[in-house]
Design brief:
single chain; TIM Barrel; eight-stranded parallel β-barrel; alpha/beta; 256 residues; 8 strands
């Protein structure tokens, strides 16, 4: 089932689980939801996050140093689901931790934890047969990345395979905040719409979204905005005690 965004544009908040610690991650997620986030992406910390910029790389390094594992992230998802039954939860990971756990075991565990969907950043749609079968068997919604450089044939395959939403990358490169939204983003969403509309799959735009102005601009052409590095940077700059309230205010400002 597609992930529902109650307001337009929806807000997807990315958190590196375990940064600064697991309890604070849960508190931040709750604050984000209570202040207007529709979906929480729980990022599984990984030792070699190739698609991520310096901010999320540092967050992953801190969480890995604390020993945070995939099973810990799934436990946070379960507690989040219990506390906020209506929120959207997406497990955001590189493929390696999932392969280490085992694809079947992971999908069963993610469903049991109450996750709505999964995004594996380095699993391409052309090689996702086993993954898609296990996701379907466990009623989980796969989310795939679409880039401005993707040809139409690939965008069609991504739209057909995605069930939660399609993550449209606003620009070529790594994650990180930017001053304005690249024109590539609107062009990509326009191209994607041809293929997502028959399935009713929403499109969320990420990479570099950091202000209310960005969110408003994205709302003109997409269904949701994904905010990652700006939130992770805010967490990095505050104490664990202050972080939940700081992120809550930030999300509220984006909504305002």
């Amino acid at each position: 089932m597609p992930i529902e965004f109650k307001k337009k544009p929806g807000i997807v908040a990315y958190l590196t689980a375990g940064d600064p610690d697991l309890e604070t991650t849960l508190a931040i997620a709750l604050a984000a939801i209570d202040n207007g986030a529709d979906v929480i992406e729980l990022g599984v910390p990984f030792s070699d996050p190739l698609a991520d910029g310096p901010v999320i790389q540092r967050a992953s390094e801190r969480a890995v140093a604390l020993g945070v594992r995939l099973v810990d992230v799934l436990e946070i998802a379960q507690r989040l689901r219990a506390a906020r039954p209506a929120c959207g939860i997406v497990i955001f990971s590189y493929l390696n931790p999932v392969v280490r756990m085992g694809m079947t075991k992971f999908c069963v565990a993610a469903a049991a934890a109450g996750a709505d969907g999964v995004l594996l950043t380095d699993l391409i749609v052309e090689e996702a047969g086993e993954y898609l079968a296990e996701m379907k068997a466990n009623r989980l919604a796969p989310v795939f990345l679409a880039a401005p450089t993707s040809p139409d044939a690939r965008l069609k395959a991504i739209a057909e395979a995605s069930k939660g939403f399609v993550y449209a990358i606003s620009r070529v490169g790594i994650t990180g905040t930017q001053q304005k939204i690249a024109s590539d983003a609107a062009e990509l969403v326009t191209r994607l719409r041809r293929f997502t509309e028959p399935f009713g799959i929403p499109i969320a735009v990420g990479f570099g979204i950091s202000s209310a102005e960005h969110v408003r601009a994205i709302g003109e052409f997409a269904d949701a905005a994904i905010i990652g590095s700006a939130i992770v940077a805010l967490i990095e700059m505050t104490t664990p005690t202050e972080a939940p309230a700081a992120v809550g205010r930030f999300i509220a400002d984006l909504r305002a």
